[in-house]
């Protein structure tokens, strides 16, 4: 078992590698199957992972929640820390944000029902709704906590100012934001604020949707329906630079006796203020590998090699939405 990390001030402890369940919803990930997804959840448990990250909107029909519900059969409830989210839903093929209190409540209840649980450990507002005062959304999540639907509350995709406004109404246990070796904007303001306020930080896209795991070859053309084509990090010169960077990391990883995915996630979970990395997977071998990022330490020399590779890579193109 790896070191466990406390979720803010709660008595809940999570492993520093969590299973991100978005890929198994099968929306943007090609080739996900129910059987492989359930086997992936079991492989995560077998590898010592105790935290699953899902959301009401992970699949047009709540596929991720339902698969977790099936995978949990026969397992003790206190063995797993479940986080779900409300505030985004599908309308046709499009995702819509809706932070109205009645919607948040309905989506929370639906997610719990699909999961087959009466309460989760962590409930996030998935994203602030520009048409609803954030305080109203925050107050509803606080109420759901008081009513025993969740043990703690988090917020995702919020700027620091939005986190502060949320926290003033409903104390936050966690935030969930993009963070990896090449997307480090939240180190500037958000992580220091979280550390000062004892708010846990859960990093999404630790593998930058797969490219940092080192499995995608430079010469491989992404399938026309591979959603990653729309991200700058997968296009043109940026993609070339990312592949060169991954090769440098691969060399650094070999010295540690680990894979590049394990090195990348190890670096991530050992950054100041990071509680856990939410690592997506759709197959058991992927999460088994990524779980191997836990329970070892990079040496100072190895960290220096990673930093040198970062300097050679240069600044990644980024939108700088969350800082
Ligand atoms: N709050 C939010 O708005 C938000 C947004 C995004 C994500 N999240 C959460 O964060 C989690 C992580 O994000 P993500 O799943 O999009 O991206 P990610 O964890 O950066 O990358 C996951 C992808 O990397 C590839 N992969 C994983 N392990 C691998 C391995 N060992 N070897 C080779 N390839 C490997 C797989 O893609 P292929 O097999 O297809 O190559 C997998 O789908 C999500 O699952 C979700 O729980 C939250």
Descriptive account of the structure:
Helix content is 37%, strand content 15%. It is α/β, with parallel strands linked by helices and 323 residues long. It has one domain (5-210, 264-296): NADP-dependent oxidoreductase domain (TIM Barrel), CATH 3.20.20.100. The model has no long low-confidence stretch (mean pLDDT 95). The structure holds NADP nicotinamide-adenine-dinucleotide phosphate (NAP).
Domain module tally: 1
Task: Write out the strand line-up for the largest beta sheet, numbering strands in chain order.
Answer: 3-4-5-8-9-10-11-12
Separation of the first and last Cα atoms: 33 Å
Largest sheet, if any? Answer: 8 strands, parallel, barrel
The whole-number mean of residue pLDDT values reads: 95
Helix percentage? 25-40%
Can you name the CATH architecture? Answer: Alpha-Beta Barrel
- Number of separate helices: 10
CATH top-level class: Alpha Beta
Number of strands: 12
What's the name of the CATH homologous superfamily? NADP-dependent oxidoreductase domain
CATH topology: TIM Barrel
Structural class: alpha/beta
């Amino acid at each position: 078992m790896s070191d466990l990390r406390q979720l803010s001030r709660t008595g809940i402890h999570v492993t520093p590698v969590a299973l991100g369940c978005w890929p198994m919803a099968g929306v943007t990930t090609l080739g996900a199957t129910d059987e492989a997804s359930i086997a992936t959840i079991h492989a995560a448990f077998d590898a010592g992972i105790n935290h699953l990250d899902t959301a009401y909107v992970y699949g047009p029909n709540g596929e991720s929640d339902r698969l977790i519900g099936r995978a949990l059969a026969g397992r003790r409830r206190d063995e797993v820390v479940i986080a779900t989210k409300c505030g985004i839903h599908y309308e046709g093929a499009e995702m819509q944000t809706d932070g109205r209190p009645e919607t948040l409540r309905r989506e929370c209840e639906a997610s719990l029902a699909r999961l087959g649980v009466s309460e989760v450990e962590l409930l996030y507002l998935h994203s602030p709704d520009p048409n609803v005062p954030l305080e109203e959304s925050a107050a509803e999540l606080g109420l759901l906590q008081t009513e025993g639907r969740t043990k703690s509350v988090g917020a995702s995709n919020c700027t620091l100012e939005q986190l502060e406004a949320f926290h003033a109404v409903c104390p936050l246990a966690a935030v969930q934001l993009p963070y990896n070796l090449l997307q480090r904007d939240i180190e500037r303001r958000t992580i220091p604020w979280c550390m000062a306020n004892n708010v846990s930080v859960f990093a999404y896209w630790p593998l930058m949707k797969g490219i940092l795991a080192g499995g995608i070859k430079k010469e491989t053309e992404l399938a026309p329906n591979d959603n990653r084509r729309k991200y700058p990090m997968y296009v043109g010169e940026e993609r070339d630079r990312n592949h060169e960077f991954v090769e440098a990391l691969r060399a650094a990883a070999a010295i540690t006796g680990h894979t590049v995915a394990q090195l990348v996630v190890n670096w991530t979970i050992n950054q100041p203020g990071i509680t856990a990395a939410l690592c997506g997977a759709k197959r058991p071998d992927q999460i088994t590998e990524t779980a191997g990022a836990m329970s070892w330490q990079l040496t100072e020399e190895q960290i220096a090699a990673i930093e040198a590779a970062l300097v050679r890579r240069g600044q990644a193109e980024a939108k700088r939405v969350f800082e």
